[in-house]
Structure formats: C-alpha cells, structure tokens
Amino acid sequence: MQNHRRSTIINPSRYIHEWHWHAFSALVLVGCLLAFVAGYVNTICIVSAFRLPLTALTGSTAKMAIVLAQGHFDVAFHFILLIFSFAMGSFISAALIGGSSFRIQRHYGLVLILESIALGIGSLFQDVHVSLHAEWEALTPSAYLICLGFGLQNGMCTTFSGAVIRTTHVTGTLTDIGLIIGQAIFHKRTRKHLWKLKILVPLYLSFCCGAVVGWFAFELLHNKAILIPCTIVGCLGLGHTAYCKIFLNLNIRKIQARNEEIFKSTRLSIVIPETIPELSIASDKHSSDMDPNDSEVEHTAIEHCLSTQNSTTPLLVAVYHPEVIQEQ
C-alpha cells in the first residue's frame, strides 16, 4: 500500500492576509526595516570602493560572464566568491530556521544577529584586500561578508512569507506590483490578491528611502556608514530572541500548569465513580445509625456543596441523599 505523505512545501502567503491587524502590521514594519537596510547598504556598496550592488547579484552575474568571456579568470573568481557567499547565506538561513511555515519561535533572531555580525565585520575591513597571486586581482573579504549577510536576510524573508516579502532587491517586488494591478483590472477573479499591495508598496518605498539615506550617510561617515544598518538588524535580532526566551517561555509555563490542573481534575472525575459501590454500602449502614439532628446538618452541608458547582460533588451526593439531587 502506497503511503501518502503530506507535502512539506506549502505557500505561507495564503495565511498572511488572515492574520490579525497588529500581527500583520508588525510583519510589514519588520519587512520595511529590512528593505530600508538593504537599500541603504546597496547604495553604499555602489558609491564605495566596491562599485557593485551587493544585495542582489544580477549585475555581479552579468559581470562574471563578461570577464569570463574576456579570459580574466582571476576577476571572475572574485565574482564567483560573491555569488557563493550569497548562496551560502541562504543555506545557513534554511539550516537554522528549518521550515517554510511562519512560527514565531523559530530562529529568525539568530539569523538577524549573524547578519549583523557579518555586516559589522565587513564594514570594519573594507580597506583590506587579499592577493592570492601577484598577477591576480586582489580579493575583498568584506564584500563576501556583506553578500553572506544579505543572503541570510533574503533567505529568512523568503522562507516564511512564500516569496511575498523580498527585501534585498526590488525587481521581484515591482514585477508583483505590476502583475497584481494588471490582473485586478482585467480579471476580476484575481482581485483577491490585492491585499499583497499592502506589503509590496511599502517594501519598495522603504528600499528607495534607504538608498537615499545611505548616500547621505556615506558622504558623512564614509566606511563607518554601514554600522548604522548593522545596529538596526542586530537590535531586531536581539529583540526577537529576547521575546522568544522570556515572554513565550512564561506563556508556555502557564499553559503547562493549566493543562496539569485539567488533567488532575479529569483523573479525579474518573476515579470517583469506581468508589460508588463501596460508598453506597457505607451510606446504608451510616443512615441506619445516624441521629436525626446529624441528618439535618449533613443535608445542609450537601446543599452547600451543590451550590459550589464542583463537578465531583453530585456523584457523592447522589449516593448519600438522592432526594437532594431531585430537588436541585
């Protein structure tokens, strides 16, 4: 018999628009901050010594093909390392997060902390060049670290959003905006996807704002300008980690304590009926030897027990005084 397993590859975007407004707003806010960081760093990489956009590798791939065609294999090796670093960042992100569905307790904070470390080290060593051979083009380790950091970021966002949130480049974002608007105008059945514009438009505007701010920051701070987005990403990562370790753990302990109470009450309600035959025999003997005054006191106590709405009390009352149950 063939075993049918549920597919582990799902599209998380179908669930995002069903979130509560505050969770949806938090998602958009974090995405916009990351897009701002990407635009900021991308501008700095273009105007600095790198002369390349490192948050997306379309241009680097094209340049690699050009230098390969020209026979400059040493320069091509530099672009190959850039592409490999970005892919390695996505690989590490997938290994740490470990799932395509969004769960707040996954290691998103750790991924952002690693990105912050990569950006910080890359900004401190922008002027460091490594030459493997006297005639070869010098390599720039800081560029590889920046590519690694944004590979981490892009992999994390793509994982839990179903490729709706892509923060390191805007090619796919602009493509989705055009597709959604065009389909909504000419095909009414596709208007259900208009909610994605609430994410895509702010992402694009945030990337543009980050690019503008990045240029002014580089004019003022030069190589130290990357420390600003490094701090932003690091704070996001530390905030998420602290939230998971403190707030979520407290809630989990409360839920576990509540479940233990429910489990104990359930066991009590199951054990009590097993003692009913013994209690009924004891009640017959007890009623024959009971003083009339004691009977009135017990009757009053039983009525009080019924008023407390204890789930196990009626079982005992039904044994001793069935008439009380009928009155209730």
From TrEMBL:
- Which keywords describe this protein according to UniProt? Membrane, Transmembrane, Transmembrane helix
State the superkingdom: Eukaryota
Which PROSITE patterns does the record associate with it?
A: PROKAR_LIPOPROTEIN
Q: Which residues cross the membrane?
A: 21-50, 75-96, 108-126, 138-156, 199-218, 224-248
Q: What Pfam families does the entry give?
A: DUF1275
InterPro entries from the entry? DUF1275
Could you tell me what this protein is called?
DUF1275 domain-containing protein
What is the scientific name of the source organism? Adineta steineri
Lineage runs: Eukaryota, Metazoa, Spiralia, Gnathifera, Rotifera
